[in-house]
Amino acid sequence: MDASREHPDRLVDSFREAMRHVASTVYAVTTNDEGRRYGILATAVSSLSFAPPSVLVCVNRTASLHDPLARAERFCVNVLGLGNRDVAEHFMRPEADRFAVGKWEEDLGVPVLATAQSSLICQTAHRQIFGTHTIFIGELLAASHREDATPLTYFDRNYIDISRAPERP
């Protein structure tokens, strides 16, 4: 079938199904706004440039983090490891205090998960609205990494352990 002629609703469903089968690292994106912590789980995060070191984060405009992040000067991308699954599951609860689980610290004015595989603290450099999302570009201010961590990975609506993937001949 010619995809350019596919009905828009079917195209969205096909896209959603295709993206569910792309394994993605799980991130907790966090910020502070007016003295309150905000955060969401995200998989739409990517490195952008090494000069300057930067990342992009795509956030749905209906997400609880969106408006605080749109006002924030800084944010943190916490790369979750396998040992942070409890944090990920807690972040999925809509009414929960997302920071009640995990060891959270403040660094450069943003919440940082002390046990994350990696943490990237960024200065907001640019915001761009596209469709249902805003793309936030952050210039790196600080980074930390734990050598012993394996990333928490999401695939087809489940967390998977990529360190146990079968070896190929």
TrEMBL record:
UniProt protein name: Flavin reductase
Domain spans labelled Flavin reductase like: 19-161
Organism: Aurantiacibacter spongiae
InterPro entries: Flavin_Rdtase-like_dom (IPR002563), NADH-dep_flavin_reductase (IPR050268), Split_barrel_FMN-bd (IPR012349)
A GO MF label: riboflavin reductase (NADPH) activity
Oxidoreductase is among the record's keywords: yes
Keywords: Oxidoreductase
GO biological process: pyrimidine nucleobase catabolic process
Keyword Glycosyltransferase attached: no
